[in-house]
Amino acid sequence: MRTTRLIAGTVTAGLLGLAPITIAAPSQAADTWTTSTVATPSVAQVEYGDDLYISVDLSSSDGYSPGGSEGTVTLFAMEAGSSAWVPVATAENTYASFYDVKPQMNTQYKVVYSGFTSTTNYQDNYTPSESAPFTVGVARKITRPSSGFVIKGKVTPSYAKKKIVIKVSKKEKKGYKTWKTIKTDKRGKYKVRLPRRGGTWYWSFTVKGDAKYLANGFGWRTWVS
């Protein structure tokens, strides 16, 4: 019994001599927020050779946009006939939109935000996101003169030896009937002479659309007193 009491006393003395241990408070971790990307084109369709801009609204679940250098915003395109998304432009910062976008044919677009992972505890993390895809239609371009009975010009692009339908009416808004169908040459050029009919006549020139391009056309007026 005496030995047991001595051991107990020694252990108690040792515990009383321990120095207090200081436990550091954990550092605050960066928050992670989900993001949402919305992309809106300035127009739904353009004529070949024209451009448009695409505005981008990037937001996150914290109620703010990621900082200008916190990730990248990239515009992707998929042209008619393709099944692959291709990056075509990267914005200067996460607040920027895309200007001077010039589709070469009917094209789908989407905008992708890369997300951002902080390497410090002073910035937040943001998840990747992408906008819903949208399509911008492209109509072929038709050149023509400014006046006269001889109508000539060119249809671009890719309109060699294809039809132009010409209709005529005595009324500007209705009553059009097919007058003639002509074809372009191998360079997409066309030429036709309209008849000098008495009175005022209204004419329409139309090229058909296809999988890559929208239909397009223009109106014309002739008059003989």
List the helices and strands and how they pair.
Blueprint: H1 2-16, E1 32-33, E2 35-41, E3 45-47, E4 52-60, E5 73-79, E6 86-90, E7 98-101, E8 107-113, E9 125-126, E10 129-130, E11 134-139, E12 141-142, E13 150-156, E14 163-169, E15 177-183, E16 189-193, E17 199-207, E18 216-224
Parallel strand pairs: 1-9, 3-11
Antiparallel strand pairs: 2-4, 4-7, 5-6, 5-8, 8-10, 8-11, 12-13, 13-16, 14-15, 14-17, 17-18
Question: What is the residue-averaged pLDDT?
Answer: 90
Structural class, by secondary structure, is: mainly beta
Provide the gyration radius in Å.
35 Å
Q: Span from first to last CA?
A: 138 Å
Number of helices: 1
Main sheet attributes: strand count, strand direction, barrel closure: 6 strands, mixed
Q: Which segments are poorly predicted (pLDDT under 50) over 5 or more consecutive residues? A: 1-18, 21-26
Q: What string, H for helix and E for strand, traces the elements in order?
A: HEEEEEEEEEEEEEEEEEE
Q: Count the strands? A: 18
Strand composition percent: 35-45%
Shape: elongated
Helical content class: under 10%
Could you characterize the architecture of this molecule?
The longest helix has 15 residues. The N terminus is likely disordered. The strands form five sheets. Strands 3, 5, 6, 8, 10 and 11 form a six-stranded mixed β-sheet that branches. A four-stranded antiparallel β-sheet has the order 15-14-17-18, with no helix packed on it. The radius of gyration is 35 Å and the shape is elongated. It is mainly beta and about 220 residues long.
